[in-house]
Design brief:
- The protein is of the alpha+beta class.
- The protein has 13 helices and 21 strands.
- It has helices spanning 9-28, 42-45, 49-52, 81-91, 137-158, 205-209, 234-243, 272-288, 302-311, 322-327, 348-373, 381-389, 402-423, and strands at residues 32-33, 39-41, 61-65, 68-76, 100-109, 124-134, 164-167, 179-187, 192-203, 213-215, 221-223, 225-232, 260-264, 292-294, 316-320, 329-334, 340-344, 375-377, 393-398, 436-441, 462-467.
- α1 packs antiparallel against α5 (137-158) and α8 (272-288) crosses α11 (348-373).
- The structure holds ligand 87F.
- The site of ligand 87F has 16 residues, from α3, β9 and β12.
- Ligand 87F is lined by residues 51-52, 55, 58-59, 78-79, 81, 110, 129, 174, 198, 200, 228-230.
Length: 470
Amino acid sequence: MSGCYILRPNSYMIWERIQGFLDKKFKDHGVRNCYFPLFVTKRALEKEEGHLEGFAAEVAWVTKSGQSDLAEPIAIRPTSETIMYPAFAKWIHTHRDLPLLLNQWSNVVRWEFKHPTPFIRTREFLWQEGHTAHATSEDSLDFVKKMLEAYYECYKDLLAVPSVRGIKSREETFAGADESHSVELFVDSNGRGIQGATSHKLGQNFSKMFDMNFQDEHNQVQHAWQTSWGFSTRSIGSLIMIHSDDDGLVLPPRVADIQAVLIPIVMKDTPPALQAKLQEIANDLKTSGVRVHVDDRTNYNPGYKFNHWELRGIPVRIELGPKDLENSEVKVVLRYNKEKLQLPIAGLGERLLVMLDEIHEGMYKRALDTRDARTSHAANWKEFMEALNKKNIILAPWCTQQKCEKEVKRRSAEDSKQYIIDSGDSGEDVLTGSAKTLNVPYEQPALAEGTCCFACESPATVTALWGRSY
Ligand code: 87F
């Protein structure tokens, strides 16, 4: 099936850790899990036509059971607003029923036609989608930001991936939302931005369509204020691209199922004393809370094993040879920076536990430094295109006009074609395609009085983050 991929245990395990991390954050904010059906009726899906804008072609439909046509085609959920909100409308009557805070972990199907890529662009993927209803606009915006913060923390504290929190431009806002907020990531190998997750302030757009009303404290009937927010298995693809190197995967320690692999340095059979020491070390590590695996396979040599675990990104390799045993030491090799250390066996578990946190911080900092070094500032079109051709993302003063962003998309695509011709480059190492806003970062540098938009030269009101993106 084109565009559909198996999640084998080594990747599914990462998803389980992401689920564990986010699920706790959601529950800390009072969100409860639920599960809605996979199918949506044509009538419900097409109720809010505006939100389907641009997406309709991606909806997959079931038209038959056995040999007989269904009376009405049934859609497979591409997202669950239109499945959930009719139920929300039945459940919400008064302000006492609010806020309603629900989440579901599920699969969704979007029939993409662009080239599929594992994790990044797949026709079926796993995600969580949160949907809430509130009594006031302020409460809903508060929640949008809380969930964006949970996503930011998941990238930072679990996946060691830096992200930029911000609000989407009008052009990039979800058609069913008043505001879309996002965390944006940077992939250095090709200079593209990638959206890490989104959190939408839906306003009353859906509640009006689905008659989701409540009686407020003054007995006035109002439409509920809603939010929706999602985080998908695409994050695994981002994590892989951001941390890995030419020797394979590099896993941040908090998602690694095996955090340290222990390898005896012997040619054939492991002598009993060394075997006993391996077990002793493994037990010490386990007691300290380090997820350790002893690779004492006798049918592979140490070199093969080094390669095997390096390719799989295991954060720490611990080698124990006869000489190390004599000295009561081990050799420790860190995957992410190839650092080698000779450490005493005594207290190794405690030492490694600290080291895993240092690895996490080291990986985060490396990704952050890379991103910052590849974030250019542009004051005008020339600087913008130069930065783009260096495969950078760009902070630039902007007017926020939708027609301006449309023009940037058009002009950047055209100019990058020209750049390939002018530079005589085969085009293999330079990126083509249009640039757009990734988001308008929450953290805004001060704009000097009279600053102009880098693209259209009307007055700039914000600094936006721009780039080619996934
Ligand atoms: C594809 C087909 C049909 C995205 C689609 O971001 C509909 C859609 O509504 C669609 N692709 N979207 C937007 C999803 C919005 C929102 N839903 C809940 C999220 C987060 C989770």
